[in-house]
Amino acid sequence: MHNQLVPRGRFISVEGVDGAGKSTQLSWIDRWLTSEKIAHIVTREPGGTPLGEKLRALLLNEPMHLETEALLMFASRREHLAGIIEPALARGEWVLCDRFSDATYAYQGGGRGLPKEKFEALERWVQDRGGEMIQPDLTLLFDVPPEVSQARIAKSRELDRFEREAASFHERVRNAYLERARAAPHRFRIVNAARPIEVIQQELHVLLSGWAHETLA
Ligand SMILES: Nc1ncnc2c1ncn2[C@@H]1O[C@H](COP(=O)(O)OP(=O)(O)OP(=O)(O)O)[C@@H](O)[C@H]1O
Ligand SMILES: [Mg+2]
């Protein structure tokens, strides 16, 4: 049973276009949290649970109707919240998540053009727990011009269904992310991800130390 004396953990999401450097920086943040002795888990979307990982494989590889794509994203998210994220936060652990709902707004909304009212309805269904909307406490948006991020991933591996989209798609995804950030400035921090890895890490160090200090005060 949940011990009421354990303070709820903090929820951090990492966002940005494909190849922005999310996974690279997420593993640095993971090490930083460990060095700060902050109990945490690392997870990702779509995925994070055994069923979610199966949905991820379908989402990244199978052609499908764009509304099916949005519904599967939220189905995976429902499973993830119930099975992984909420229990971890209740145990007092921090959750470090590679993408969350902002990615659905950016990709299925900005990228594919599905109206945002659809996501708002699904978000209420999946993330509203007794009147409280579960959202990340902090969202790090790694912002980079798509031509820079595309050049990075073209070198590193075979591209998935989203990564193969045209440059205009990635530009719309980027703009939709920036719009989400403007709408929720209290939880978003925009990080210029076009800079070298170590420079970004120095900024993350300052940003996270300050934020953790503030949020735990
Ligand atoms: N700041 C950076 N400068 C140059 N190269 C970088 C930078 N950050 C990451 N990379 C390189 O770019 C590639 C993509 O990085 P990474 O996998 O971290 O991106 P991602 O945002 O997680 O991508 P995806 O959305 O596809 O998972 C990797 O080869 C990585 O080493
Ligand atoms: Mg990644």
Automatic annotation (TrEMBL):
Pfam families: Thymidylate_kin
Keyword check for Nucleotide-binding: yes
Keywords: ATP-binding, Kinase, Nucleotide biosynthesis, Nucleotide-binding, Transferase
Keyword Cell wall biogenesis/degradation: no
UniProt: ATP binding residues: 16-23
Catalytic activity: dTMP + ATP = dTDP + ADP
Residues covered by the Thymidylate kinase-like domain: 14-203
Enzyme Commission number(s) of this protein: 2.7.4.9
Gene3D superfamilies attached to this UniProt entry: P-loop containing nucleotide triphosphate hydrolases
Matching InterPro entries: P-loop_NTPase, Thymidylate_kin-like_dom, Thymidylate_kinase
One MF annotation (Gene Ontology) recorded for this entry: kinase activity
Described purpose of this protein according to its UniProt entry: Phosphorylation of dTMP to form dTDP in both de novo and salvage pathways of dTTP synthesis.
Similarity remark: Belongs to the thymidylate kinase family.
Protein name: Thymidylate kinase
Origin species: Silvimonas amylolytica
